[in-house]
Amino acid sequence: MRLDKLLANEDFGSRKEVKKLIKKGSVQVDGEVIKDVSHHVDPNQSEVVVNGNVIDYREFVYIMLNKPKGVISATEDSRHECVTDLLDPFYDKFNLFPVGRLDKDTVGLLLLTNDGELAHQLTSPRKKVDKIYEATINGVVTEEDVQAFKEGVILDDDYVTKPAELEVTETTDEHSWVVVTISEGKFHQVKRMFQARGHEVRFLKRRQMGSLSLDEQLPLGEYRELTEQELDQLKT
């Protein structure tokens, strides 16, 4: 790409400002001072240095966030805190967005990226990517509920969900602790599936999406970039 476009994308100023920066001799490409604003550079191959600082250029960024309650899965909202508000301002230039969404009061794994192709692969109903949730449910979840999930649940709008896996890990007289695996992502789907069965979800946490599992060492509200291994597995 053009050198002035690269610097503008990397937040070194407006096109006009970065042109002045380049003409002043403040930019080096592979050790050579470049004063031609239209000079083309491959930022993935060349070392670009501005005022002694090496540009860390990346086309795509992939972030794992342990989403807390009270934050919405959006990039901009006038009334609520968004998941992108939790990120360091360094990431603003990448225009990250959440892949799919978690409800405001749902916690756990959320992937943020600017890779639209990967986001489509993970959220397209045709791809049938599994999402795994842990939930605390009011009341006793029965074997009949398990079977209903396996066959598909009729929601309040008469939509029949795709078959889902429901595993009961613990029960008391008042609550059940379950693991739910679904391959689609309808609005409030897990909550609506349990509502259709006469149960209320008290707590909901997503722990896995495709091959990507939540790093349990990551506190609520914290994030980190994916490792190369996590990204490779996710893409395949």
Automatic annotation (TrEMBL):
**Any GO BP annotation:** enzyme-directed rRNA pseudouridine synthesis
**Member of which family?**
Belongs to the pseudouridine synthase RsuA family.
Q: What is its EC number?
A: 5.4.99.-
Can you say what this protein is called?
Answer: Pseudouridine synthase
Under PANTHER family, the record lists:
PSEUDOURIDINE SYNTHASE, PSEUDOURIDINE SYNTHASE FAMILY PROTEIN-RELATED
Example GO CC term: the record gives: cytosol
Q: Which organism is it from?
A: Alkalibacillus haloalkaliphilus
RNA-binding S4 domain location: 1-59
Q: Which SMART domains match?
A: S4
Question: Example GO molecular function term?
Answer: rRNA pseudouridine synthase activity
Keyword field: Isomerase, RNA-binding
The answer to whether the entry has keyword RNA-binding is yes
Q: Which domain of life is it from?
A: Bacteria
Q: What PROSITE patterns has UniProt attached to this entry?
A: PSI_RSU, S4
NCBIfam families found in the cross-reference section: pseudouridine synthase
Q: What class of enzyme is it?
A: isomerase
Entry annotated with the keyword Protein transport: no
